[in-house]
Amino acid sequence: MKNGSFKLKATITPSNTTNKSVTWKSSNEEVAIVSSDGTVTGITSGTCNIIATTADGSQKSSTCIVTVVDVTSIVIPETLSLMPRETYTFEPMIVDSRATTTLTWESSNTAIATVTEGGVLSAVGFGTTTITCTAHNGVSAQCEVTVSNGLMAANVLGCQSSGVTLPILMSNTKNIAGFQFELVLPEGVTVREYRTSERTASHSITMKELSTGAIRFVVSSMTNKLVSGTEGAVAYIVLDIGKNTAVGDHTIQLTHVQLTEKNDTELITIDAPDQLSTLTVTEATLGDVNNDGRINVTDVIAIIAHILEDTPSWFVEAAADLNGDGLVNVTDAVAAIQMALEESGE
Predict the structure, then answer these.
(1) Quick check: 97 pLDDT over 80?
(2) What predicted TM-score, i.e. pTM, was given to this entire model?
(3) How far is C-alpha 317 from the geometric centre of its chain's CA atoms?
(4) Rounded to the nearest 5 degrees, what angle is found at the Cα of 121, between the Cα atoms of 147 and 182?
């Protein structure tokens, strides 16, 4: 192999010969070189002779024919389609098969799929990425990986005593007529409301809390209309974060996912992998009722809307009680106006 090496050993007979030293020579040092101790190193593909000659003056010699081979190509699948959290192990074919090499693997987008040093591919998000396998000499091969036909819950950020909207995402290459899934929520987090999206406007969504504590959602159409498009949200779940929910990252489990594929003759159930997403909970900032890091007219309008019992889904009630009296009323709205003016420099 190019840049590979091995050591030759010369045996002198008869065994009682006084001078057993030999000299080493390559017939073509552009193909392979040999050191004084018989170590042969491949330089480039080709064939040459490695000659061992006695050093006692008798000029006795022996020849080893060395063929240096190198990787000329790598064969892996050109395309792959996976569901989220599916895995696939590449088994690359090396040409020339006699060559040995160390392969490196790389994903062009690790948010969609990752690949280990051993060539194990893991789908982690929707979309398309390119996996590149490279040999020691720069020879490489690529595989385009598409991750689709499953559901994922987005990672979301909210604060204590607030609501946060959890998008349920679908990427599909198949005709999907309906789907169902279950959510396992962190302690102190509950479902306030739920609705379909633009992609599922012709569908209905229903919910039931199970004895296991999981919450099952079913999205279907009485007329078997298809989910429109191939990317994006297919449902929105509004979550309430309790005031005692710990600050930090919490895991949301999306499990028991089933998609209904509709083709020309039948309906087919597709079992999709479970998914995990992260809910990051922060402390409420007084006055910042929409949790955007600023206090402005939007917060004032939201506080007034809350007083009029028209509370936005994202409203952080703990941030609205500016005077800490346990109530949200006009006093808090006036205080929010003052804070907004101070922040704007007016």
Answers:
(1) no
(2) 0.66
(3) 35
(4) 50
